[in-house]
Design a protein that fits this description.
Number of helices: 2
Strand content: 15-25%
Helix content: 25-40%
Distance between the termini: 36 Å
Number of strands: 2
Order of helices and strands: HEHE
Largest sheet: 2 strands, parallel
Length: 67
């Protein structure tokens, strides 16, 4: 759940990302394509979403500032 004021921000991002993925057949990711391993980060949510065999991901490559 998203309840609890003491939760770490990254954990909250992860929970929201999982919720969105779990409730979407298609996910659009604006992402630089780098796996950071950061909890709740785009790469982790993309990885989570792709574990679902019937789900689709569209990836739009975006560059980080300075790239």
């Amino acid at each position: 759940t998203l309840k609890g004021k003491n939760k770490n921000r990254d954990v909250l991002y992860e929970e929201v990302g999982h919720f969105v993925s779990d409730n979407s057949d298609i996910l659009f990711a604006l992402w630089d394509g780098e796996y950071t391993g950061q909890k709740g980060g785009t790469s982790e949510i993309v990885k989570y979403h792709m574990t679902k065999k019937s789900y689709v991901l569209y990836h739009l490559l975006v560059l980080r500032n300075g790239d």
